[in-house]
Amino acid sequence: MKKAEADPLAQAYLHKVNSHPGVYCIALNRPKSKNAISVQLLKDLRAALNQAISEKLLNVLIFYSSTPGAFCSGADLIERKSMTDAQVREFLSNIREIFNFIDDLPFPTIAAIDGPALGGGLELALTCDFRIAASDVTKMSFPEVRLGIIPGAGGTQRAPRLIGMSKAKELIFTGRNLTARDAQDLGLVDYVAGSSSTAFERALELAKEMSSSAPLALRAAKSAMSRSLDTPLITALNHERTCYESLLDTKDRLEALVAFREKRRPVFVGE
């Protein structure tokens, strides 16, 4: 699958995958720095996310690098050296806000990790519903404690929720590098792509499986499950019922019933 042509002016941008209806991507586009997170990249990422949220027929969103063999090398430490304390605090506030926004996106998200995912890059991956790594990835870590800081964009909170407190503490306290297989064994990564495939290609396979579903149903399912671990069971079950009932009068539900009767694939319109 041919990817979209890179926008040389944007450090992150949204594009469709024309061969996979319903699948969109946000490309990280700072090739010289392996997509280190700069102030401008955050601005462009925010703009891309605002575009994505307005796409009615967006079913699955993949985050990936426009450059092969990369994902995100974390914060731009060269830029960071020139920042005042106030600018650093503003940067941290912005990155937390944007990563929280990704975590709360209403549709499924996938991080396609085809290269180093370090610090903020790994934190970005943790905001997604699924993480897929290429088999040759050898650098996934939280190196912050070796730099006199801690993960500051959600790593200390999302990692324990994903892999358990003890494993997360070891990962963060040591700053240890993980290979793709190591990360999968820990539960940090869901899939490792085959040796002849990229993480992006494997992400497209997963996205294709999900994207044939009704857009509103996918969003309702994600909303229902988002409450499952953080609220009492009865409260979560009531939320599930609310999510279910929101779909009863939709065009897509009626279309699915007609398509089943007519023995054809439904054509969903996100309404």
Overview of the molecule:
This protein has 271 residues and is of the alpha/beta class. Helices cover 45% and strands 12% of the residues. It has a six-stranded mixed beta sheet, sandwiched between helices. A two-stranded parallel ribbon has the order 5-7. Strand 1 and strand 2 form a beta hairpin. The longest helix has 19 residues, at 85-103. The chain is globular, with a radius of gyration of 19 Å. The protein starts with 11 loop residues before the first strand and ends in a 9-residue tail after the last helix.
Which secondary structure elements does this structure contain, and how are they paired or packed?
Layout (H helix, E strand, L loop, with lengths): L11 E5 L6 E6 L10 H15 L6 E6 L11 H5 L3 H19 L5 E5 L3 E2 L1 H7 L3 E4 L6 E2 L13 H9 L1 H10 L5 H7 L4 E2 L6 H13 L3 H12 L6 H13 L5 H12 L9
Parallel strand pairs: 2-3, 3-4, 4-6, 5-7, 6-8
Antiparallel strand pairs: 1-2
Helix pairs in contact: 1-3, 4-5, 5-6, 9-10
